[in-house]
Amino acid sequence: MDKTNRVKQILMGMRTVLKDKPLTVKMRVGIDDGKPLVGRLLPALTAARIDALAIHGRTRQQRYTKVADWSYISQVVEMARPHNLPIIGNGDMLSFEDYELRKTETNVDSIMVARGALIKPWIFTEIKERRHWDISSSERLEMLKSYVRYGLEHFGSDTAGVERTRRFLLEWLSFLCRYVPVGILEQLPPKLNDRPPAYFGRDDLETLMASPSVTDWIKLSEMLLGPVPEGFVFLPKHKSNSYENPVSQG
């Protein structure tokens, strides 16, 4: 992002290859905190005739330690108006209130939902229907069953297919465990950066699903796909989502 000419060259090359097909770009606010770069890159983006720009309201340095900077996204919306460039805002979407607030405050053309959809895939229903869904553990288990069924249909039901499906399932569970049921929240709406203390769910399955332990994610996978193979180890790609070291099952 700090090499404007390089960005322009890449995008111009993509535009040449894509011809009239849509070309969209997604980027963070910048590299270092306090040094936003998107505004500086707008001339290069518009020169390449991109069709839309999605902005994740964080810097690379920041990672996920602070809330997304929607005020800067709003500034980019204004800067992009003379270029008729649609802006898509992204960051900390976990409820329909988040969606409506950011859409109204910033005048972005659209909102991108990212981690929020991994933590609660039903967020799109909540946005559409403008409500909080107190989804039960049994309903979530049915979603997991569907996910596993789709995985086995796609990858195959042999040993390799089962284990590949398990890997994808465990990656998802490393996010899904962060969902706190609406029925036990002290206040609404929930926030993506909240880190609630450990809690007991309303049933044993809900408690198991809330566990940040790799061991418990593996238990859930075994409920759906059978025992893991001897020597199995899982380390989530997003290591910060797991509060325990990788577990070997044998």
UniProtKB/TrEMBL annotation:
Enzyme class: oxidoreductase
Protein name listed in UniProt: tRNA-dihydrouridine(47) synthase [NAD(P)(+)]
Domain DUS-like FMN-binding: 1-159
EC number annotated for this UniProt entry: 1.3.1.89
Record's keyword annotation contains Cytoplasm: no
Reactions catalysed, as given in the entry: 5,6-dihydrouridine(47) in tRNA + NADP(+) = uridine(47) in tRNA + NADPH + H(+); a 5,6-dihydrouridine in mRNA + NADP(+) = a uridine in mRNA + NADPH + H(+); a 5,6-dihydrouridine in mRNA + NAD(+) = a uridine in mRNA + NADH + H(+); 5,6-dihydrouridine(47) in tRNA + NAD(+) = uridine(47) in tRNA + NADH + H(+)
Lineage: superkingdom: Eukaryota
Keyword line: Metal-binding, Zinc, Zinc-finger
PANTHER family: TRNA-DIHYDROURIDINE(47) SYNTHASE [NAD(P)(+)]-LIKE (PTHR45846:SF1)
Listed SUPFAM superfamilies: FMN-linked oxidoreductases (SSF51395)
Gene Ontology molecular function: any one: zinc ion binding
UniProt-listed InterPro entries: Aldolase_TIM, DUS-like_FMN-bd
The family this protein is said to belong to: Belongs to the Dus family. Dus3 subfamily.
Pfam families per UniProt: Dus
Keyword match Lipoprotein: no
